[in-house]
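Memo to structure team: turn this sequence into structure tokens by end of day. - J.P.
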Amino acid sequence: MGLGERIRSLRKTAKLTQEELCAAAGFSKKVIQDIESGQGNPTLESLISISDVLKVPTIALFGGDESPARSTLLAAIVEALPALDDRELRMILTRIESLPAKARPGRSTSG
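Reply from structure team:
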């Protein structure tokens, strides 16, 4: 399921029309139509606004079938990152890269 399809599904789950989502998020209907059809290229700010209206963590717009607990955890991590300085961000990246490859989808074990 792509981003647009996921937003449409979450919007319908929230029992909102495109018009209601647009009004609450401050967009034109065309913007939401383009995003949901896969034609739009939303900004991070747009996605945050949409997730706020839908009352889901922004990461849930990308998350597929993740559990609510995992979505909440990922959202907390993403929200904490801007407060960190470059040294702290490098430390986190180094730690993530040191995890076993099986813990990091898309990474091979061959090096």
